[in-house]
Amino acid sequence: MKKSNQPLTVFLWLLIFITIFVLIILFNNLLMPFITRKGQEVVLPKLTGMTQKEAESTLHRLGLKIGEVRLVPNSEIPPERVVTQYPRFGRRVKRGREIDLDISLGSPKIKIPDLIGLPLSNALATLEQSGFVVTQIESVRTPRIPAGRVASLWPPPGTEVRKGCEIKISVSTKVGTFPMPNLVGLNIETARGVIISYGLNLGQVKLGASSEPAGTVLFQYPEEGMTVGPGDSVSLIVAQKSDSVH
User: Fold this and answer.
1) Whole-number Å distance between alpha carbons of 118 and 29
2) What is the pLDDT of residues 195-225, one digit of tens each?
3) Containing H/E element for 8?
4) Within a 13 Å sphere around the CA of 212, how many CA atoms are in the beta-carbon half?
5) 207, 218, 217: which is closest to 240 by C-alpha?
C-alpha cells in the first residue's frame, strides 16, 4: 500500500502561495512606483532671475508648461525676470505640470518730491531717505531764492521715476555773505559738492578716529550758521576707516 503524498503536496502549494504573495508585494511596492514614475516626473529647476522667455524654454525642455504669470513690483530683480516660481525649485513634479511665475516689474515708481526753496542739506537728506541718488550739484544765481537753497531739480518735482533714479540739483547762490551750511554727518564727497555749490573752497581735511562710517564729516570750520562769503575756505575733520579705530 502506497504512502500518501498529501503533506508534501500541501507544503508545495503553501510554498507557491507564499512565493506569489511575496512577488505581488515586491511588484506593488518596488516595481510599480518605479515604472509609473519613470519618464513622468522631473526635478523642477531654479528659474529665479531668468527672463520669462528663458523660463518657458527651460520648462518646455522638461515637458512642463507655463501656468499663471503675475507681474509684481520688485526692487531687487530687474524688470521682466522671474521673481518667484510655484512650486519651488527642487520639487519633483509630473511632466505636463503647469508652473506659475511671478515676473518683476522692477522698482515701483515714486514721485520726485518738491524741494524747491529748502536748504541743500535738508533736500539731500530727503532724497537719500526716499532712495534717490544725487549725482550732480551745481550753483545758479537766482534772485528770488536765498543762497544755499534748492533752486531746481532734474528730473523736475512731481515726475514719476523708479527708485534709485539719479537726481541733479541746482543751488541758489548770490553775491555777498551767507550762513555756513551744516556739513556734519555728510559723506566727504557730498560735503565737497555742497562746499563748491556755495562758492566756497575746500581747505584742510584731517582724519579722525570715530565709529562713524569712513568718510563721514565729524567737524567743520566755519561751523554751521557762521557768516561766510564766496571764496572762503572750509576745513573738515573726517572719520577714518573703522579698522583703524581702537
Assistant:
1) 76
2) 988 788 999 999 999 999 999 999 999 999 8
3) helix 6-26
4) 18
5) 207
* Average pLDDT estimate for 11-27: 76
Confidence band for 246, pLDDT divided at 50, 70 and 90 = very low
User: Which residues sit opposite 74 in a β-bridge?
Assistant: none
What's the burial of 122, exposed, middle or buried (CB within 10 Å: 0-12/13-18/19+)? Answer: middle
Highest mean pLDDT, choosing among 13-22, 84-93, 138-147, 177-186: 84-93
Q: Encode burial over 49-81: b for 16+ CB neighbours within 10 A, e otherwise.
A: ebebeebbebbeeeebeeeeeeeeebeebeeeb
Q: Are 156 and 99 in contact (CB under 8 A)?
A: no
Question: 179 or 208: which carries more pLDDT confidence?
Answer: 208
- What is d(CA 197, CA 134) in angstroms, rounded to the nearest whole number? 13
Pick from 61, 69, 67: which is nearest to 43 by CA? 61
- Grid cell, residue 103, equals 515676473
Rg (CA), the chain: 36
